[in-house]
Amino acid sequence: MKRAKPSYLEAPENSVDRLRRPRPTKGTSWDSLLAERQSRVALEEAFEKEEEESPSTSYRSEDDQFDELPAELPATKDEETVKVCLRLRPYSQSHNCNLKIRDSSTLVVKCAGENQPGASSEKHFTFSNVFDDHVSQAEVYDSCIRPTIRLTSGEPGATILTYGTSGSGKTYTLLGNAEQPGIVPRSIEQIYEELRGHVSSEPMLKMEGMQLCPLSDGEMIEEKYKVATIKDMLRSDSHEQISQVIQSQQQFQPLELGDRRVFIWISFVEIYNENVYDLLNLDEACAKRKPLKVLANEGNAYIKGLSTLYASTKEEAYNLLEYGLQSATYGSTDVNCNSSRSHSIFTMNVITHSLAMQQISQSVYKFCDLAGSERQKKTGTMANRLKEAQKINNSLLVLGRCLETVHRNQKPRKVHDLVPVRDSKLTMIIQSALLGKEPMTMIVNVHPTDEFYDENINVLNFSSIAKQIVIRKPSKMPNNGAESTRYSFLPTSAPDLLVRENEALKLEVQQLRDQLEHSKKTLFIQEYQLRNELTDNFKVQFDKMEDSYQQRIESAKQLAILPYKQQLIVLQRKLESKEREIQELEDELEEDENKLKAYEEEINLLRLSKGKRRLSL
């Protein structure tokens, strides 16, 4: 076998085997292999003996006998098959159509090139329901989806798929428009209307990975802030019109749930080029999207790092749906001007908590809008669009292989094939439904024109395989009357005994309640005393700390002032010396002034004497 070259651009995940080797569900020992070989030899000897006794019957291999079994095994009471419905897209009467609806569950397809008179070759396909191009969205929902959403039955949920060629009306069936809402808006309306009054306004419980976790007050505030941020970004009231249209067409009655509280969490992802992206991540609104990793454990898929937001009302659910659709990937082709270029999966996780029974149940409803299969010759895709089409067709091919393998494994065979759910991100996410662990409904959309004859035949063959898959419900223990009572037998004194036991239990309950109240009061007093002691201790400690800090501050002040005091003394000494020098200078100045005055007086006397002499002469 030629070894595949490693790809550095699209490396497989760690959870996927690079050599794609089969993975057995459990280990095989030599003892089991030997026992299987012995049973096979014994079976062959029995067949040979039977052939000798009845030579008219020819020997047939074990596999040949299994192949002659009917394609669709009868489902028991605890089993049901996948519900597959067919819907035809409206088409112009000018186009020749090879499809014809015989009754409400059968579609007849004439073979290509045999539309001439006298040709009688045709194929018959059976579905759960067949809808022509005049059936409304409400009728499709009431027939296919409404019975699947069973909120009080304790079932794990359901997976709804829309499958078909590009431009056949899958997105319209799933989402619809403002005048004709699709499956997802109607499911939101049904879930919230039937659970009216029981949906909690606070997101106290949440599924983290595969475990149920209670949320703290800070986490609940953060979850509500995310939903409010999305509401402010949208600023749209279209959900009110959609809700009014649905309520005018369908009526949903609230269910009697007693003391149960319900928590509804919503997530929205798309699978684009075999990469899973989160459509509700607010952190990636302005940044480059990062692909998420899909993990699986015993048939249950989990997307690591997926944003799951809480929707306490149907308005918030509509906002989350609208916000996610704005981030989905669409493109234009020659067949469809607004073609989905990715598989999108809208998930509603309904968590129910019973206070009286102390039980928690979970129902997960997945709504999958599968991208349509394409042929490059008709869609005219190139470059990136061609790469998208290749990834879409590959994932749909893996989905078909999974359905075919599951159907083949449901036949009575000794060795079952490995279901290749790990070959595609789509099949990894919905593997719980593919393996028959939860109900699955598939709505097949077909564009009934000769132009798409080959594509329609492939779609119908694909749906016929899905129709034959059996969903096995978990077996329930029989509930007999003798086992449901408290005693294995009921003597004549049983009523009195039950009454006395009931009174004793009531008295015990009352005593326990009194003890609980006494314990609460004692704990309250102890808590009050403990708080006072802690307060006093902290006050004393703080006072000591304050005194020590004051002392440290005073010592620091003294240390800081000390060098300045010495400088001040030196400066004072200098000042005193300068003052003495100034005083001496002043004394000398005064003496000089006195001398100057004496000199001036002498000069004046000399001048007078000279004047007198001149006068005498």
Distance between the termini: 159 Å
Average pLDDT rating: 78
Structural class: alpha+beta
Shape: elongated
Helix share of residues? 40-55%
Largest sheet: 9 strands, mixed
**β content, as a range?**
15-25%
Q: Radius of gyration from the CA trace?
A: 45 Å
Number of helical segments?
A: 15
Strand runs, count: 20
Low-pLDDT stretches are: 4-15, 53-77, 114-119, 476-494
Please describe what this structure looks like:
This protein has 617 residues and is α+β, with helices and mostly antiparallel strands. The chain has 15 helices and 20 strands. It has helices spanning 30-53, 62-67, 137-145, 170-174, 183-194, 217-234, 238-249, 314-327, 376-379, 384-409, 425-429, 431-434, 453-467, 481-484, 494-616, and strands at residues 79-81, 83-88, 99-103, 106-110, 122-126, 129-131, 157-164, 205-208, 211-214, 260-272, 275-278, 293-297, 300-304, 309-310, 330-331, 339-340, 343-354, 359-369, 440-446, 470-472. Strands 2, 6, 7, 10, 11, 14, 17, 18 and 19 form a nine-stranded mixed beta sheet that branches. Strand 17 and strand 18 form a beta hairpin. The longest helix has 123 residues, at 494-616.
